[in-house]
Design goal:
- By secondary structure, the chain is mostly helical.
- The protein has one domain (7-108).
- The chain is 86% helix and 0% strand.
- It contains 4 helices and no strands.
- The longest helix has 34 residues, at 75-108.
- The chain is flat, with a radius of gyration of 18 Å.
- The chain starts with 6 loop residues before the first helix and ends with a helix.
Length: 109
């Protein structure tokens, strides 16, 4: 049975996103910041969102390393990946929540 998406195709797509998203985020954030008359803040937020591309690329390699070490059918490998992604997801979510709360509190005051 032939794979729909090969590992090489996924690697190439993630590498492309890792290079393109920070630039696209910076430019789009700068444009939105310019329209809202907050160019530096918009550019910074856009860049931070764009950095999710390189983060995803890095996590792809971590995932592959864990699966390569323990095997695709390993419960231990699955649990390690689950714990890693839950911790990272919570961290990113809490950080984003703080940024949004700080920005909305600053807009009200």
């Amino acid at each position: 049975m032939k794979e729909l998406v090969t590992t090489e195709q996924a690697e190439r797509a993630l590498r492309l996103l890792a290079m393109a998203l920070p630039v696209a985020g910076l430019l789009l954030g700068a444009l939105i910041g310019l329209l809202r008359q907050r160019l530096p803040g918009g550019a910074l937020v856009g860049l931070l969102i764009g950095l999710l591309g390189p983060i995803a690329f890095g996590l792809w390699h971590v995932y592959n390393a864990i699966m390569g070490r323990f095997g695709l059918d390993s419960v231990k490998g699955l649990l390690i990946n689950l714990a890693l992604f839950v911790v990272l997801g919570l961290g990113v979510g809490l950080a984003a929540g703080r940024v949004v709360a700080r920005r909305t509190a600053g807009a009200k005051g």
